[in-house]
């Protein structure tokens, strides 16, 4: 019994870690998108400043 309880706990931990990983990855994708928008805006500002 104890062994199967340990397996269950480890599976639960694994599920939690995988869920956390997915959340962090989604967060990173969002931030990369924000960064790309900011970089585009910066390029526009630089372009106008140089004219």
TrEMBL record:
GO terms for biological process: circadian regulation of gene expression. The keyword Nucleus applies. Residues 14-48 form a coiled coil. InterPro entries: CLOCK-like. GO terms for molecular function: DNA-binding transcription factor activity, RNA polymerase II-specific. The keyword Ubl conjugation does not apply. Keywords: Coiled coil, Nucleus. PANTHER family: CIRCADIAN LOCOMOTER OUTPUT CYCLES PROTEIN KAPUT (PTHR46055). This is CLOCK protein. It comes from Homo sapiens. The gene is clock.
